[in-house]
Amino acid sequence: MDDVFKALADPTRRSLLDELFKQDGQTLSALEERLPMTRFGVMKHLKLLEEAGLVATRRRGREKLHFLNPIPIRLVHDRWVSKYAAPWAAALSDLKQELEDNKMEKIFEIYIKTTPERLWQAITDTETRRKYSFGATVTSDWTPGSRYRGVGGGATIFEGENLEVEPPRRLVQSFRALWGEDVKAEGTSRVTWAIEPVGDSCLLKVTHDQLPEGANNQLYGGWPMILSGIKTLLETGELLTTPGSLMWLQRA
Asked: Is the pLDDT of residue 26 over 80?
């Protein structure tokens, strides 16, 4: 967390995060236009934000897009704030992004001290997943082309197809939310789970894309809490003690 606090201590870097909060997925040139400094200066600040995990990047053709990653801020919140105050409303979940094809894309990254195999099991094992996914029971045979279903309160709350299954590194799924008429109207999007070994840990990167422009933030706003829950569970064996994660205990 030292890198996170160091990155947030600088007003210029906070301004960059503000710009990505207003419009996610910006290029270096776009961010440079918004700050009174040289291109090199912007690059230097973005590098520090990336090292702190506060900014994630993705190549699109010849462009490098920058995304605000709220996971480190969520972890700070969980460690010192959530015990005393009401949870954030889906932790920066009202970010807006307009891409060329009028689709939204959200990227979430977190480092977890575990193996790819354990992390894959946590994503695909029904009982383990219930502990960090708001109590939802997710079932599938996890083969390419198979269906998966999430059940909560006795009803199907989301479903989709397993498009790509490459254990223990990559899982690509279509996703359709069914827990309310408002989210049903958003249609089908896509979720990609990517696991990258880094030393004795793993980088878990979740990309939720093919979202309609201005998509309901219920579709992607829960990811910070879900990923924080995976990290807490695998590293400590304990459950995340936030109101959303405690749903599992209440239902159990």
From this structure: yes
How far apart, in whole angstroms, are the C-alpha atoms of residue 10 and residue 31?
Answer: 16
| pLDDT at 239 (0 to 100) | 86
Average pLDDT, integer, range 38-67: 91
- Amino acid 59 reads R
In what side-by-side order are the strands of the sheet with 155-166?
A: 103-112, 201-212, 188-198, 170-177, 155-166, 147-152, 137-140
- Residue-level pLDDT at 82: 58
For the beta carbon of residue 138, count every other beta carbon within 10 angstroms: 20
Q: What pairs with residue 155 in β-bridges? A: 152
What SS3 class is residue 11? helix
Nearest 5°: phi and psi at 113?
-80, 90
Q: What is the pTM of this model?
A: 0.65
> How confident is the model over 162-185, as a mean pLDDT?
95
What backbone torsions phi and psi does residue 58 show, to the nearest 5 degrees? -150, 135
Percent of the chain with pLDDT over 90: 62
Provide the H-helix boundaries in the chain.
2-8, 11-22, 28-33, 39-51, 71-80, 116-124, 126-130, 181-184, 223-236, 246-251
State how far the Cα of 124 lies from the Cα of 208, in Å rounded to an integer: 17
162 beta partners: 173
Mean per-residue pLDDT, 124-151: 94
Give CA–CA dist 152/180, Å, rounded.
12
Instruction: Give 57's DSSP letter.
Output: E
- Mean pLDDT of the region 218-233: 92
Nearest to 165 by CA among 139, 193, 134, 131: 193
Which DSSP string corresponds to 72-99? HHHHHHHHHTTTTSPPPSTTTTT-----
